[in-house]
Write a structure and sequence with these properties.
Elements lengths: L2 H8 L1 H10 L9 H12 L1 H9 L4 H8 L4 H11 E2 L2 E5 L5 E3 H27 L1
Antiparallel strand pairs: 1-2, 2-3
Helix pairs in contact: 1-2, 1-3, 2-3, 3-4
């Protein structure tokens, strides 16, 4: 069961409220899918709002401790690996700045090739 399914099942009024809070209307019967779409379009603020209405929030905080500074320290150590900034690509794999640059260069070369091929085809 995903976070969205858990919140939608246990707290449907809260889920609808969060969606409306961000200025969206629910156009589907699947409230979990609507929450997922909200997070994909609004990002972290929407995710935090959903976590705030999670029915097991108190239990999770009790088990993990209410100290968010350790979470912040852990995230910063994951984000930097040997003083290199790490990025996540589309499939969630971490990339260094050099890998990101290489990927952008490859993408640019492929796009340029398609543009040139299209121009040659249209010219003939």
């Amino acid at each position: 069961m995903t976070l969205y399914q858990r919140v939608a099942t246990a707290n449907p009024k809260g889920a609808k409220s969060v969606i409306n809070q961000f200025g969206y209307e629910i156009r589907t019967n699947n409230l979990a899918q609507a929450l997922k779409m909200l997070v994909s379009s609004e990002g972290e603020p929407a995710l935090r709002a959903i976590v705030d209405i999670h029915p097991d929030k108190e239990l999770i905080l009790e088990c993990c401790g209410n100290d968010t500074s350790s979470i912040t320290k852990e995230n910063s150590s994951v984000a930097k690996n040997n003083n290199q900034e790490m990025y996540l690509n589309a499939v969630g794999q971490q990339m260094t700045e050099a890998q990101k640059s290489t990927q952008l260069t490859n993408t640019f070369l492929i796009a340029s090739t398609f543009i040139i091929l299209t121009a040659l085809i249209l010219k003939n």
